[in-house]
Amino acid sequence: MRIGTYNMISQIYGSNSTKKSTTTNSTNYASFKDEVSFSSLGKDMQIAKNALASTPDVREARVSELKAKMENGTYEVSNEDFATKLMEMFAAKTV
Q: Which DSSP state fits 29?
């Protein structure tokens, strides 16, 4: 490498005048705060989630009522309702 050529290239591109900057950007990090905000939909979903968490999965009163009817032989199912539900489930599986 020829030094003379290097000097000419550095003059063209101005690389001789490169200096490292000793100044730093002093940013006050205490002035920045992280914020979290939830939309109204998010708040509604949280309320619904809390309501579902406090609700039991099984309605014991309804289950005991149906069990008593079945044991007594008084539980009746409408044939039309049964057929309708059966067809709805069949249609949902074929789609």
A: G
Indicate the pTM of the whole model.
Answer: 0.35
List CB contacts of 46: < 8 A, sequence separation 6 or more. 38
Question: The tokens of 95 are what?
Answer: 């789609």
pLDDT of 75 above 60: yes
For residue 6, is pLDDT > 70?
A: no
Alpha carbon distance 81, 24 (integer Å): 78
